Amino acid sequence: MSELSAKKVWHNGQLIDWGDATVHVLSHALHYGTSWFEGIRCYNTSRGSEIFRLHEHIDRLFNSAKIYRCDIPFSQEEIHSGIRATIIANDQESCYIRPLVMRGLGAIGVDPLPAAIEVYLITWEWGAYLGADAIEKGIDVMTSSWQRAAPNTYPTMAKVGGNYLNSTLIKMEAQLQGYSEGIALDSNGFVSEGSGENVFFSYQGDIFTPHIANAILPGITRDSVITLLREQGHTVKEEQVPRELLYLADEVFMTGTAAEITPVRSIDKIKVGQGRRGPITKALQDDFFSYIQGNVDDRHGWLTPVRENSNAQT
């Protein structure tokens, strides 16, 4: 199988063949970006296959759709069950999970309300998002020329397909200039986030991360990292972060479902700290990966077994 391939996809309550998971060319989402999605990881832990923060991700999916007046025609429990059923049908022990809700046929103007709602649950095997060496050696990033959305333009708290046009501009700009990733500023010039990751900075003993008012997506991994850092005794401050802190920080790392916890070794060709993964980042990674590998108790209830109900179908 190719990297983006599996046996089955869940569509509107039924498992269908991967090759049959298609949409019509006049689907509203193709023309106007009216789709809502999540990125979730399933890990092969010491206890078996477990999904990281499934309930929080699906809750955010429903909230994203709610902001755009979209009623998902399935319950959260049905989506949970469908995800587990899809992983089992695909014989996967670890995988990336992409729940996708989209407006399909029924409207071709800007008004989306007449369009049908389609729901897909997709799983595939996916490795390190920013490269195999990134977790240990870190990545080089740049400050993007593209900003995140100004307040009251479009809702950045919603994980909606159309928002990611901005992310593609950030990502392409960075890669074409030789960087792995870009960090965007908000409309007021404060640090926002990467194209698909939240950002953390260590500076003078404290750890900073941009506030949700800085046009960020409130990441599920971000929330997990804040919890783990505070358990380790760190002070984590969610507030406006000036751009210059990018250059003065002792450590910088990026977080996300795909990126997990990835250290940043340089920004705009300015070395971060010693130019390699720092001790705070390494300790955090050790804690995080030990948790998701099942080497410690699931003290926060973050991991959902895939086969707790192996006959789950909807």
Would you summarize the structure shown here?
The chain has 314 residues and is of the alpha+beta class. The chain has helices at residues 28-32, 54-67, 76-89, 134-137, 164-176, 220-231, 245-248, 279-292; strands at 8-11, 14-17, 35-37, 40-45, 48-52, 95-103, 117-124, 139-143, 181-185, 191-194, 198-203, 206-209, 236-238, 251-256, 260-267, 270-271, 303-305.
Give a description of the structure.
- The structure is a single chain.
- The protein is of the alpha+beta class.
- It has two domains: 8-127 and 303-309, D-amino Acid Aminotransferase, Chain A, domain 1 (2-Layer Sandwich); 134-277, D-amino Acid Aminotransferase, Chain A, domain 2.
- It is built from eight helices and 17 strands.
- The protein has helices spanning 28-32, 54-67, 76-89, 134-137, 164-176, 220-231, 245-248, 279-292, and strands spanning 8-11, 14-17, 35-37, 40-45, 48-52, 95-103, 117-124, 139-143, 181-185, 191-194, 198-203, 206-209, 236-238, 251-256, 260-267, 270-271, 303-305.
- The strands form two sheets. Strands 8, 9, 10, 11, 12, 13, 14, 15 and 16 form a nine-stranded mixed β-sheet that branches. Strands 1, 2, 3, 4, 5, 6, 7 and 17 form an eight-stranded antiparallel β-sheet that branches.
- Strand 11 (198-203) and strand 12 form a beta hairpin.
- The longest helix is centred in the first third of the chain and has 14 residues, at 54-67.
- Mean pLDDT is 94; it is low at 309-314.
